[in-house]
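Board work, copied verbatim: DUF1330 domain-containing protein
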Amino acid sequence: MAKGYWVSVYPAISDPEELTAYDKLAGPAVQAEGGRTLSRIPSRGGRVVAHEAGITQRVVLIEFDSFEQAVAAYESEAYQKALVALPDGIERDFRIIDGID
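↓ predict structure ↓
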């Protein structure tokens, strides 16, 4: 079965500290649904080399055992509470994608 992934790109973050409340709720909610954070860059010391457009925005990649599990995690009550804490000054492009078998 193909895995499922959450891909989040943050084109604009007015104040990185504003993400703290969201992160405190989202992390445990994702883990409770079986999600594993594979990458979170450039924060937490992660490295990035940008090509093409040269944009080094924050990118978060989370893996789930299946696409269905990824969708269910997003729809979970705990994650929906985390979304409420996502500040207005944050612009985010979020996708749930199917992995390749």
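The mean pLDDT is 90.
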